[in-house]
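Task card 7
Instruction: Convert sequence to structure tokens.
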Amino acid sequence: MRIEFEITKKCNDVCPSCGMGAQSLQAGRSLPDAQLDHLLAEFADVGLPSVAITGGEPFVAMRALLRFMSQARGIVEISKLTTNGIWGSRLWTGSPASSTTW
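Output:
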């Protein structure tokens, strides 16, 4: 069993047929730390084996993404991370150690 959740609704792209219901960087919201902590505790309580992280674009919520991934280690496997690949393009100005994106 796997749960899929959106870490953010924010996205850096404007795909006209977005199936994720993503919103602009300005309009979208990301899950706050307290909510992510609550989800992780719930995942641990039910013994959930794996999660899939989606968005929006998860990498625009870099700090929250890295924090969740770090805290999830040993609790739940992150089996899937859905991205539009902006982190691998010449448009990316952030770094994995930074919360800066564009």
